[in-house]
Amino acid sequence: MSEFKRRKFLKTSAGVAAGAAVGPLIWVKDANAQWKNVPEKGAHLRVLRWSRFVQGDIDQYMKNVARFTEKYGIPVRIDNEGWEDVRPKAAVAANTGAGPDIILSTNDDANLYPEKLVDVTDVCDYLGSKLGGFYPVCYPYLRPDGRHWIGVPLGVAGVCMVYRQSAIKAAGFDSFPKDFDGFLKLCKGLKEKGTPAGFALGNATGDANTWCQWLVWGFGGKLVDTNNKVVINSPETIKALEFAKELYPTFVPGTLSWLDPSNNKAFLDGQLYLTNNGISIYYAAETSSDPKLKAMAADIYHANMPVGPIGHPTEFQLFFNQMIFKYTKYPKAAKEFLRFMMEPEQMDAWVQASIGYVTPPLRYYEKNPIWTADPKNTPYRDSMKNMLPSGYAGKMGYASAGALADFIVVNMVAEAASGSKSPQEAAERAQKRAERYYKV
Fold first, then answer.
1. 3-157+317-378: what CATH class?
2. Which of 141, 161, 277, 419 has its CA 20 to 30 A from that of 39?
């Protein structure tokens, strides 16, 4: 089924949750899922969000925004910035007390300034009761004290292995390896065939963080233990870095400077045959009018990240939060906007239009037909189930958010992989850097 026909089918056949919205008062079957909120008169909102990697994302998002304005009479201005640019702008807004009413940011940024954010427990309690509950990984990100939600989870840009099927077959593999040993052998085989792999080692918020954390955790390494004691300089981490050093020569040149768009471009240019990414590469090829890219789309497949020696999934995904800042003049209107955008009538259409680029945080959305309409989409469905949280295995807070924003693990892996430092030296440097955030 072509993507055009598939998306047309999905838009007409997707189910919606029970319950109807009539003005600001919503009643559903679950008595705990009741929503009553009256936005401020004369309200208008400004939202800062990350730029799209999938055109269907922003197209449908803006349609949903228009529906909100039409229903409530509340104008909404949407600004778009790159992932790396949203974080500093959010920090400036928090520190100065001025800026967008709502910011859609990444990972555990909300834990950098929780006292500057509006309590959205009422919104999350309503959504969770109505839509099957949030995945457990949402709680450490946005309910760090166990009681209050400091932001509304949006989901994750699910990251899987993205590969050319013809290339892995030429390298001697009938299917994508499920363990680290097989993964390394595949990358070596791809290099020998002139169809190399490549993984970002620059300060890429999504791609570098996801695969570097996955690699270290897969060997049992971690930045901190359950008591928030820094333990990154460990035998387990050293094994991970030695693995990275053996893996790096199989990469296409230039990965040390790659940011998030880099592997997308290299893959679609035919320079790269295996990387970690969201579904955006496949989406771009599948929806292109270029015959070469359309042919490439037929050869693109996805697989969940292999499991390391530790024996269980250690995926790390790019988590998206939605934060309302206390300086807003319209907190009720802002809550109404987030509640509206997370409802099935809007969210289902958004997920479909972007072919699952964002995996929603509520279990209800597992039933969205996009995950099975094309089997290539299915690995992304369970991204939130399989992931470990930022700051694993410790508690989230200022330290975990700061350490992640400072790319400590990414830089450590890059230093060891490239040979600019030995694995031991890279781990020692990471230990010292992390200790500045996790002060005793």
1. alpha beta
2. 141
